Amino acid sequence: MNKTLKKYFPLFVIPTLAAFLIAFLIPFLMGFYLSFTEFTTVSNARWVGLGNYKRAITANRDFVNALWFTVRFTVLSVITINVLGFFLALLLTRDIRGTNLFRTVFFMPNLIGGIVLGYIWQLIINGVLMHFGVDITFSAKYGFWGLVILMNWQMVGYMMIIYIAGIQNIPGELNEAAAIDGATPLQTLRHVTIPMVAPSTTICTFLTLTNSFKLFDQNLALTAGAPGRESAMLALDIYNTFYGRIGYEGVGQAKAVIFFLMVALIAFAQLYLTRSREVEQ
Q1: What is the pLDDT of residues 227-245, one digit of tens each?
Q2: In the chain, what's the furthest Cα-to-Cα distance?
Q3: CA–CA separation, 164 vs 157, rounded Å?
Q4: DSSP code of residue 22
Q5: Which of 159, 171, 189, 211 is 20 to 30 A removed from 55 (C-alpha atoms)?
Q6: Eight-state DSSP code of residue 48
């Protein structure tokens, strides 16, 4: 059997490797090179060294503002989505009627595209704000909280499903032992349920962290960065730089490389920390 697998190993690996090279590695390396050049097309790139990176950080405040806006949004979204998803999972793993229906209803928003979600919530939020004589683009704080609400509405049901799977995998003997020892429901939650769903917490934190940090479609549809790009997140700021300003293609590419490295660093750091806690527990 092992000889057969070794014989056909290239047959299975080569298509995947080719797709990885063509769709990711080669474009990434080309983009990394172009971040050190001024260009309008790949064929006329002119080397400028670190100039694009300096311009990306110091030429205007848009990138720094987008970074700070994205960090605040990501921190709040990761906390609220995971807390709400976990407690919904607790409720929907109890013996109550209609749990399957509620699980379906809560999960369905995750199936809607980001652009559509953005426009739906723009209509809803503007319908509320019009009573106060403003709309969502009146202030960046309206756009911020609108994005938080949108992201929670979209992602909570998805995280809930993952937490439900983790809770259902907890051996019943542990809860029974806790009850025999006289543990209260809160003590059982703290000392049994939460530690046992640590793998689910790792997955959910990773998904919410990366999805929040690289949010684009919803941001574009909901506020498009208005007013004055104050509610633009990093992905939208890079898009505006690359496609909205002539002569800034290299700067946009430099921002994209910085963005990629930040997302990768944060994702790996989060995985390392959460995996370490799993091992300790």
Answers
A1: 988 999 999 999 988 887 7
A2: 75
A3: 10
A4: I
A5: 211
A6: -
